[in-house]
Design brief:
- The structure is a single chain.
- The protein is an alpha/beta fold.
- The chain has helices at residues 3-8, 35-48, 60-67, 87-99, 111-116, 119-135, 151-164, 182-192, 207-216, 226-231, and strands at residues 24-28, 52-55, 73-78, 104-108, 139-143, 168-170, 197-201, 220-223.
- Helices cover 44% and strands 15% of the residues.
- The chain is globular and about 45 Å long.
Length: 239
């Protein structure tokens, strides 16, 4: 379990512009993103000192090389964006990402299992990926896709993530409608307790948005509007 999640979980005060960057996973997950786009995001992350750059698996090596020595982490996604991938495939994908240099992995749960109330299937799926990721020295964030779940299902998914050894739970992929809400972040924080991180992703486009999520219990922000957030401006990117 990540020390960051343990130390900072449940932060109640709003982060200011000076330290908000340290919460942000600077994100580029568009399928049409080019190498030039990815390198631009890496340069921005290094300049603004974001927490990580989050990209699709094909770009992990590129990001790892570009960020070397910057202090910015490399993050990749697994089973993205649907989560409807067999567990062994998710684990294989996670292993490849970690071997390529990913220090953090964001996986999508089996959403159908969550909607069916099948906690056992959820836990097994997450635990297998957690074992792979942790064996490589990386941390695991679990995307529960809040827009597709009821509150009861969100709680079930968060409980499964905790039991499976995840380091974070995360609201959304940004690809299936909806996005992070203060209410969902607060519910997730209450469910996972202070020892697991909560990542708010989807629709966080301004400093006020980010501060509200942190006040509700988020310890990480996933956003493609990171620069606008740290500048106190209004971003327009959907993620």
């Amino acid at each position: 379990m990540s020390n960051e999640a343990t130390v900072h979980a449940g932060t109640a005060h709003p982060a200011g512009r000076a330290d908000i960057a340290s919460y942000i996973d600077h994100t580029l997950l568009k399928p049409e993103a080019s190498e030039a786009d990815v390198l631009k995001v890496c340069a921005e992350a290094a300049e603004y000192r974001f927490k990580s750059v989050c990209v699709n698996p094909i770009w992990v090596k590129t990001v790892t090389t570009a960020l070397r020595g910057s202090g910015v982490l490399t993050c990749s996604v697994v089973g993205f964006p649907l989560g409807a991938t067999p567990t062994d495939v998710k684990s294989f994908e996670a292993r490849g990402a970690v071997l390529d240099g990913a220090e953090e992995v964001d996986m999508v749960i089996n959403i159908a299992a969550a909607r069916a109330g099948d906690k056992g299937a959820l836990t097994e799926d997450i635990a297998a990926v957690a074992e792979t990721v942790h064996a490589g020295g990386a941390i695991l964030k679990v995307i529960i896709e809040t827009a597709l779940l009821t509150d009861e299902q969100k709680v079930l998914a968060c409980q499964a993530a905790v039991e499976a050894g995840a380091d974070f739970v995360k609201t959304s992929t940004g690809f299936n409608g909806g996005g992070a809400t203060v209410e969902d972040v607060a519910l997730m924080r209450r469910t996972v307790g202070p020892q697991v991180g909560v990542k708010a992703s989807g629709g966080v486009r301004s400093l006020a948005d980010a501060q509200a999520m942190i006040a509700a219990g988020a310890t990480r922000i996933g956003a493609s509007s990171g620069i606008a957030i740290v500048k106190g401006e209004q971003g327009s990117a959907a993620y």
